[in-house]
Amino acid sequence: MAGNSDPLSPRAKLAVTAGKAAAAVSRAAGRGSGSVIGGKVALRLDPDLLGRLAQHLDVILVSATNGKTTTTRLIAEALRAAGPVVSNALGANMPAGITSALAGGSDARYGVIEVDEKYLAGVARDTEPKAIALLNLSRDQLDRAAETRMLAEKWREGLAGTKAVVIANADDPLIVWAASSSANVVWVAAGQEWKDDAWSCPSCGGVLQRPGDEWVCAECGFRRPTPSWALNGDYVLDPHGAAWPIHLQLPGRANKANAATSAAVAATFGVPPQVALERMYQVQAVAGRYDVVTFQERQMRLLLAKNPAGWLETFSLIDPPPTPVILSVNARGADGTDTSWLWDVDYTRLAGHPICVIGDRKLDLAVRLEVAGLDFRVCADVDEAVRIAPPGRIETIANYTAFQDLRRRVGN
Asked: Which pLDDT value is given to residue 32?
């Protein structure tokens, strides 16, 4: 662990204090947690504050298109077996939000930090992490984050020469390409349900062949590396071949994959798989995701899906028909303003479900469902959707800002 012999300078202390004050004002005004505005104020006063706050921590960075908030939470729970942890648990994953989180971790040993894909290289440069977990890359917010191959290239360049242990998904060719510039990589067979961004070789542009669980480029030989950790059904296989059972309260195959990666990260810091996985069972929900709430005397499960890969995973864990489903889509700044991704989602998987559509872009979604041949109702808001929904627990799936709107309305 890095030493804490270099206390914060007066300027840094002033920046931290001002940031906390700004965050408190934001919370008092009902404008959210205040973590982003607090971080922005602090960084304005001390642009190097993020690095200073990370000096005494063993930092673990987590980045991906999907699953980074949940994986960050699972890793944090596992590492608490070895010492105090500070983490951006609410998902504020750009430099300002990360700075706010670390400002509250003066007594922590570990900093487990979720990082937005676009900012990974810069945050890694500032915080000098001991470990970096890379889960997946797929299309998301193309108006902001650009094409996935370009993002993988930026990661590859930014991580070249890093001293961190990189824990990376061997099943995602884009992740393998990005991580391969690093000297110390631990490969995890975490799976890849969504493959539509990974049919061409990121190294040469050739077509990838996918025999069984493997993948390989016939033109340049770029191939899936041999994993040392693997998800195998309800078990994590460690590098010695031992199988450790996964018991999670979080649903779905994707969260088992997140747990496998988290166990590999924890082992890097000396936490045994059995201990790490037992601690992960404590996680019931992540920033409201997977919560079951009661609204208008109806039970609703809240599910977040922000992009085609996320929707595909979510469809696999909802209750079967005739369970009612509410879909909500916005296209605000935090979502990405381009809704063309709706056409990449296979909504025919919802056949047989009574569907209600809400959100700022409910008409965009309605057109997509009409083309998919599904029966649905367009509703003014969640109140109307719940009122007309048939009996049974309602599965509610929303993208980022629509999910936040739902949480505020249904009291979670």
From this structure: 66
